[in-house]
Amino acid sequence: MSGGRPALIADIGGTNARFALVGSDGEPTGTRVLACADYPGLAVAARAYLDLERPDPAPDRAAIAVASPVVGDRISMTNRDWSFSIPELRAALGLGQLRVVNDFTAQALAVPRLDAGETHRIGGGTAISGAPIAILGPGTGLGVSGLVEAPGGGCIALATEGGHATLAPADARERAVVGALAARFGHVSIERAVSGPGLGNLALAIAAVDGLDRAALEPDEVTTRALADVDPVAVEALSMFCAMLGGAAGNLALTLGARGGVYIGGGIVRRLGGFLEASPFRARFEDKGRFRDYLSAIPTSVITAENSALRGLTALLEQGG
User: Fold this and answer.
1) Alpha carbon distance 235, 241 (integer Å)
2) Where are the alpha helices (DSSP H) in 186-320?
3) Which helix (H) or strand (E) covers residue 136, if one does?
4) pLDDT class for 1, splitting at 50, 70, 90?
5) CA torsion, points 312, 196, 244, 117, in degrees to nearest 10?
6) Phi and psi based region of residue 154 (left: phi greater than 0; alpha: psi -120 to 50; beta: remaining)
7) Residue 293 neighbours by CB distance under 10 Å
8) Cα–Cα distance between 262 and 125 in angstroms, integer?
9) Which of 25, 87, 224, 256 has its CA 20 to 30 A from that of 201?
10) Cβ proximity of 239 and 193 under 8 Å
């Protein structure tokens, strides 16, 4: 880093903020996870992290990934009531340089840095070197990105808001559930079902379709009950979640021509283990009519590495971000 000073990197989601420092060796250190709900805004959270780590000298530049669109100098997060000005944040933290990107831009940049043991393959297919790569992952929202080769070498990560594309039901049961979601939300984006809150939304919608009187469940409760196989509604909600994730991943693969592979990130999917493999995820990924053979040749993999977006931010710093 410049003049021997470290850089600050941070991955800011709707629930947690992950911070680390990057020194001259390019490796993240001092990684900490802070709960977003404990802080009124990003500047306060970042300052709290720096007060805990007390780097000496202090960082003079930073790369921050946020779970929201990055358009202009004012950032308003989608699933957290944080809003900030990039120039004001740079000044508040005493930084000479600050780069802010979408969180799945950082996730995409991390993919080439993953070791073989940090992904878990689901389904067949063989990645084609140099072809576009697709990345998506459910968390507090649904992040979506892609990675394409840049002219002259290197990669370009696509900043998208694909999680807010319209959710497409695949059969009568899903149409009924999406109808219940539409009655509640109006527009039903993929994120309304394929995310942490989406798990709770699906459980309530399934119960409504079946005429059951059910209290809302937190996403962790839905997952815990489903994995323990003690709640039929939770089991169906998690299975439908996996199927819809597969459908969204297949759509993204077609849109990007992602013959370099599709990668699924986020802590929710990592927690599912064998449930995802046994679910309709891969079948729905391939279920695209005349393009079934095209998709069956594309590998899908779960990113098992923790804090992978931080590695993407390190790559961004190395690019001069």
Assistant:
1) 10
2) 196-209, 219-227, 232-256, 267-272, 274-278, 281-286, 292-296, 308-318
3) strand 133-138
4) very low
5) 40
6) left
7) 9
8) 11
9) 256
10) no
